[in-house]
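Example record for the data management plan.
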Amino acid sequence: MEPLKLVRACDTRWLSIETAVNRIETQWLELKPHFAACSKSCHQAKILKELYTDKNLLYLKFLKPLLSDIQ
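Corresponding structural encoding:
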């Protein structure tokens, strides 16, 4: 009998998506102005500032119950 192989993190990464979506949605109002303020001095903050749009918030709100059902 061969030993079982270790499961790679990327094989189960989808399991953490619900937690991340919940956390982002919960902290949305605080994170949006934070990234806007930091965007002039930090390239990563500039990219994140551009992602914090009403369209993306709506997308997360749509995904949230679906992810709960999958988990």
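Summary line stored alongside the record: The CA atoms of residues 22 and 64 lie 7 Å apart.
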